[in-house]
Amino acid sequence: MNGTSPSLPLTRRLPVGAEPFSGGTHFRVWAPRRKRVAVVFEHGAEQALLPENGEYFSGVVEHAGAGAQYRFRLDGSGELFPDPASRFQPAGPHGPSEIVDPSRFSWTDANWNGIGLRGQVIYEMHVGTFTREGTWAAATRETDRLQGVCSTIEMMPVADFPGDFGWGYDGVDLYAPTHLYGTPDDLRRFVDHAHSLGLGVILDVVYNHLGPDGNYLSQFADSYFSQNVHTEWGAAVNYDGEGHSGVREFFVSNAGYWIDEFHFDGLRLDATQAIHDTSPCHIIAELGQRVRDRARGRGTILVAECETQDVTLVRPLEDGGYGLDAVWNDDLHHSAVVALTGHREAYYSDHSGLPQEFISGAKHGYLFQGQRYAWQGKRRGTSTRGLSPERFVTFLENHDQVANTARGLRLHARAHPARLRALTAFVLLGPGTPMLFQGQEFSSSAPFVYFASHDPHLAAATRTGRAEFLAQFPSIGLTPMNRSLDDPSDPHVFAKCKLDAAERERNVEVLRLHRDLVALRWNDRTLRAQGSHGLEGAVLNEHAFVLRFFGPSEAADRLLLVNLGPDIDLVHMPEPLLAAPRGMDWSPLWSSEDPRYGGDGMPPIETKEGWRVRGESATLLGAS
Q: Is pLDDT above 80 for 481?
């Protein structure tokens, strides 16, 4: 490699970026568009990098170490640009890059073996609103409160983005943890502490597009983005067109970087339907393989969001799949929201919220597996045959779905509390992999709306775009509600989305409900198996259904009764799933109507006349 010195280590950790060593720092940048590249330090020193293979520039700058700030001068121009693979942008995407030495951090998680999909309860976290301070340091102090609520934290994107606040999906410096939340070592400290508590941490990453502001990649290479394929957020990333090799290297290396240098336990891939690639090895499969490789034997999980519900994502590599672990299940969410609120607008219009949808979702994951989807006027989804239930991440709330209401209201503000408790039990005891959205576990009063800090021109376009998106809901579009939508760029809008930690104590009944359900899920051997011994369901009436979890022995079977309507009397019971194991009876193990959760109490289910199932309740029965 040109520009090296005898003291330079034989190998770099990553193919691009600034990497310090004992004698200085080695710089390497992919810039096929340029003829000359120089490193310019904030104190004024400048050093040219040497061309390498016609596409890269590299070299050693002696005595430059961690903390030094720099930019690149391209072809001798007066304008300076941050490093495309910057490890830290202390002043944001438009400022200088900073050299970071990851070896200076002292990890304490040497005995951490990672995570596997089976048994996980995921907790989606937006660091900027998880605490009042909105930093990794503050989140680290609060993470202890998540023990018993979840087993893995899914952190919303942290790649640096412009402005003072945002969701993170418009990141532009994919290797630089955002300066808004602290330093890279603050993020490492968060992950390290989570591991000490027995909690895994996976990171939400965006590999389908980059944000519109502060994205300087095209200054270095023309081929980062496709000229022919676009996403709803902008140009698609070029994974298979002319000049794509450096692009693939950049993104695949980024996936491994988060696992290697920050000890994340996996990734959640955003909007995979917008990741376009016709290569023999799809980029998603390559990303997944790099994550496994960089974990060096630690267990990892890879989760995908896919609007088109393509299960190729989780099929094994040897069967032509991409080898990921799980996919988000929007179908089940939509059914739940209809059942809880009664509203069937826009993308909820193909869901009825009736019992059969919950049974089918528990058994098969997606509800739409190739049938016509009226809302889109075309077929939707793919067959899930052969996939186990834990492959489907199930939820009642997530960042998108809470925000896709006019005021960003949580479900507890829109649904009857007893019915919400019942469906919470269905999700947390069901065979899928459950996920909670931050604050859901204690009925946070903080809304969650779309917020993004931009310059005035982009802020206006964002405000218009958000209103147009929400106009698909008739109750919002073309009504006074649309005109009263929050301005995403308003700092007060961002501030009101921050969680109030004191509500954990004030809403202790709700927190107790979630903790008890999670403990039951983990401690009961039949529920813990997530349907691997067999799972069946039956409709009891237009509002009620039963799920039977078959255990390793007949005596270990569990029966979950969910009634989202009024009380029902089962005088006639011609349903074999309701039959107790031979020589045994059903006994209640848990009820959503327990007064400890704010319920009204649960009378005995079995009477002389048959069964009486309480309205708007969930009850778990075991054989005795």
A: no
